[in-house]
Amino acid sequence: MKDAFGAPQSLLVLGGTSEIGLATARRLIACRTRTVWLAGRPSPALESAAAELRGRGAYVRTVDFDALDTQSHETTLGKIFTEGDIDMVLLAFGIPGDQERDEEEPLSAVRVAQTNYTGAVSAGLVCAGALQAQGHGSLVVLSSVAGERARRADFIYGSSKAGLDAFAQGLGDALHGTGVHVMVVRPGLVRPAGTARSGAAAGTDTRAGTDTRAGTAAVAPLATIPFTRAPLVTTPEAVAAAIVTGLRRRSETVWVPGALRAVMSALRHVPRPLFRRLPV
Amino acid sequence: MSVDTVSLTGWGRTAPTTALRFRPRSYEEAAATVRGCGPRGSIARGLGRSHGDAAQNAGGSVLDMTRLNRIRAFDAGSGVVVCEAGVSLHRLMEVLLPLGWFVPVTPGSRYITVGGAIGSDVHGHNHRAAGSFSRHVTEFELLTADGEVRAVRPGTPLFDATAGGMGLTGVILSATLRFHPVKTSLMSVDTERATDLDDLLARLTAGGRRHRYESARVDLTSRGRATGRAVLTRGEHASLDTLPAHARRAPLSYFRPTQLPAAHSLVPDLVPGGLLGRTSAAALAELRYRRAPRSRTGELQRLSAFLHPLDAVPHWNRIHGHGGFVHYEFAVGHGQEETLHRIVRQISQRRCPSFLAVLRRFGASDPGLLSFPVPGWALALDLPASLPGLGRFLDGLDEEVAAAGGRVCLTNDSRLRPDVLAAMYPRLSEFRALRAELDPNGAFRSDLSRRLSL
C-alpha cells in the first residue's frame, strides 16, 4: 500500500533497463519500496540492474516482457498482479528511433510507433485494469515534450509519444474516482548523469521493450536553442525526483524541468510557418 | 442493503482507495456481506474519524456500520448500556447525559462509533483515571470470519485481540458498556500555563488526583527557552454546588451539541494548502498561549467545549488543504522524558506548522494486544502532508520512539514503516497468530493491515 506521502511499497517497472525507471526505483527504495519487478526483454543489462537494486535492500524480480508482443501482455503482466498488490506501475519503455532512417524505411518507423504507442496502449490497459481491480495504485507514464508539438527533426518519435500522451490523459480521466491515479511525466532532453554527451549520441539502443531514455535523442535538437540549453536539460535523477514529488501531490501532469511547462505552452501556439523556421 | 462503489480516505484525507460499500441494517445482512466478500476481504467502518487507513479496504468490501445504531437497553441504576456497534458516542451522550450518565472514555471527537472505539481502544483526557475504552466494555458481540456471532467477554484472548485490533478479528455488532455517573453536564476546569517542557512535565507529574481529565496544548512552534511551552487544563464533572443558582434547576440540560455534519458538506473544498503555513501556525500558537490565563480554577465549561472543541467546526480536517494531513501520535514510558524532549526540540527546530499538539499522561495500560497506551507520556500532533521531507523526518522520530520502548498509535497512522512495528508492539506476533487461526483465509483486511502486514 502507499503511505500518506504516496510512497509505494511495491513497484513494477515496464522497461526494466530504463535509466529513468532505475533512477526512480532507487529513489523509491530509499523511501518505502521493498518489492520491485523489472519487466523487459531478458538481457545481461536487466539482470545487472536487478542485482544493483537488490544490493540496495529491495526484493527484486525480473520478468520477460516485450512491448511488441502485445498478445502476451495480458498473461505476462496479469501473472505479476496475482502475486501481490502493485502500488505503482512505471511505464518507462520506448525507443527513440532514427528519424532519417525511419523516414526511408517505413517498417522501422512502424516499429517505433508500435513500441512507443501500441505496446504502451496494450500494457497500459492491462495494468490499469489490474490496478482498478485492486482499488488503488498509480500508473506513471513516461511521455516526452516531443509529443507536445510535431517537429521536423523527430516527428515519428514525437507522434508516437503524442499518441501515448493523449492515451494516458484519457485513461487518467477514465480511472478518476476508482482509486487509481494516472500521472503523465513529460521530461525534456534527458542527459544521463555524469556524462556530457551530445543529443545525437544518445539513445542508439533500439531494442524494443528494454530501452529507456524516453525522449532522449528525440528532443535533442531542443538543446540547440542556446538560451534554453542549460536550464532545460535534465537527468534521470531529476526525473525520478519529480516523479516522487508528483506521487506525493497526486499530480496528473509533471514536466521535468518544471520550466518546460511554460516554454512548451508558448511553443505550442507559435504559427506553423514560423515554427518551421525555428531551430528546434 | 444498499451497495455502492466509493473512494474512501481516513480523516487525514491522504491515500484514497476504492471499495464496495455495504450498509447492513441487520446482523444477517452483515454476516452475508462478510461471507460473500471476495478475495480482497472486508472491514468494518464507522464515521471515518480515524486519521489513517484503518477503515479502508482497497478493491474489497467495506461495511458501513452506521445503520446498526440502536440503543437496545439501559439500566438507570447501574449505568450499563447495551447498544449496537454503529451508534455514535454523540448519540449516547445525547440520550444518556440527561439521565445522569456519561461516556466513560471519549477521544477528541464524539463522532465515532462504539464499534470503532473498541476496535481502536480509544483513550481520552482521562486515561490516567479511567484507562482506555475497552476497560469499560463488559461484553461485545463479534461477527467472525466463519459468519458466526460470538459473545466475547473481558479476559479472553479474543477480547484482547479485538480491543485495539483495528477491526481485523471481526465485525463488532453490539456492545455492553458501563457508563460513568455525573451530577451535571458542565465541567469545572482549571487552567495554568507552563513556560517550557520541563515546567509542563513537572506540573503534570505534581498535579493532584482531584481531576479526572487532564491535557496540555503544547506550542510546538516556539523555540529556544520557550520550547514546549503549553497551556495545561484539568477538568472534572462539575458538582451541583458549584453551579450558579439558575443552573441548578436543570443541571443536566447543558449539553447542546451541534448536529453531526453531513457526509458531503456544502462547504466547497477550496481551502488552499499553503494558507496555514509556518507563520500563521506560530501566530495562532502565540495567541492561544497568551490568551490563556496564567492560572485559573473552577471555570465552568460545557462538556463539548472542553472535550471536543474541534467537533464544533464541521470538516475541520480541510484546513490542511488538498494534500491532507498526517496525525502523528506516539507514547513513551516514564523515565523516557529525554526522548520526549529531543523529539519536541526537533519538531520546533524544523518549524513544523503543527496547529494542535496535545500532551497527555497515560496511566496503566490495557490488556489489548495492539492497544496504544503505555504508562508514560503521549504527544499527538497534526502536520500537513504536503511538507517536503516530512516522511523521512517522521521515520527518524519513529526510530527514536522505538528505541525508547515507545510506540506510535495505529488508529491514526498512515505512514509507519512496517519494520519498526514489531519493536513497538511486542505482542504483535501473538496477534498475528490468533488472527491466522481465527481468519485463515483473510476475510478481514484493510489498507492498514496490508501496509503493515498485520
From TrEMBL, chain A:
Keywords: Oxidoreductase. The keyword Oxidoreductase applies. InterPro entries: NAD(P)-bd_dom_sf, Sc_DH/Rdtase_CS, SDR_fam. It comes from the Bacteria. PANTHER family: 5-KETO-D-GLUCONATE 5-REDUCTASE, DECAPRENYLPHOSPHORYL-2-KETO-BETA-D-ERYTHRO-PENTOSE REDUCTASE. NCBIfam families: PRK07904.1. This is Decaprenylphospho-beta-D-erythro-pentofuranosid-2-ulose 2-reductase.
From TrEMBL, chain B:
Pfam families: FAD_binding_4. GO terms for molecular function: FAD binding; oxidoreductase activity, acting on the CH-OH group of donors, oxygen as acceptor. Residues 14-182 form the FAD-binding PCMH-type domain. InterPro entries: FAD-bd_PCMH (IPR016166), FAD-bd_PCMH-like_sf (IPR036318), FAD-bd_PCMH_sub2 (IPR016169), FAD_lactone_oxidase-like (IPR010031), Oxid_FAD_bind_N (IPR006094), Vanillyl_alc_oxidase_C-sub2 (IPR016171). SUPFAM superfamilies: FAD-binding/transporter-associated domain-like (SSF56176). This is Decaprenylphospho-beta-D-ribofuranose 2-oxidase.
